[in-house]
């Protein structure tokens, strides 16, 4: 029961933070440059504190389940008469492995929302031709240049975090920083099965 509650708590916390990251990504175009940096920094510090809070719980959940799997496998191989088959072994642990997979997926979705989702929003804000913006009435060339520099800074910052795997603000699983990029495909395949 503690294991299931641990997985549920981790998933719930990650989902709540993911919703906040998605709200930030949605409101990104309406925010001023200073508001963007302040909200992103605040969101990053909240994710770091969430990682600090959840890290022992994540380690406990994963190590406990792996230890139980190993102990059951050792017990099964040591007994002369096999009281349960491999199928029984898998059914005994399938619920717990599903809970671990769900927890890992939730963590990955949160990490995806922090960087990749925001990166997609910034990419949508970048116009195809910056020169077109300066020819509108009331828009000065300096404003266009500043907007372009600001958006390119955001783009480079997010791209660097994604490509380098640095992901300063993310929830780690055993020091592994990842994002569930293919979560939509995986869920689609799972529903087809």
The percent range for helix content is over 70%
Q: How many strands?
A: 0
What radius of gyration results from the CA coordinates? Answer: 22 Å
Number of H/I helices? 6
Structural class: mainly alpha
User: What is the approximate shape?
Assistant: elongated
Question: Could you tell me the strand content as a percent range?
Answer: under 5%
Largest beta-sheet details: none
Q: Span between N and C termini? A: 28 Å
Q: Could you tell me the mean pLDDT?
A: 77
Q: What sequence of helices (H) and strands (E) makes up the elements? A: HHHHHH
* Poorly predicted tracts of residues: none
Protein model, in words:
Helix 1 (2-27) packs antiparallel against helix 2 and helix 2 (33-78) runs antiparallel to helix 3. The protein has six helices and no strands. The protein starts with a helix and ends with a helix. By secondary structure, it is an all-alpha fold. The longest helix is centred in the N-terminal third of the chain and has 46 residues, at 33-78.
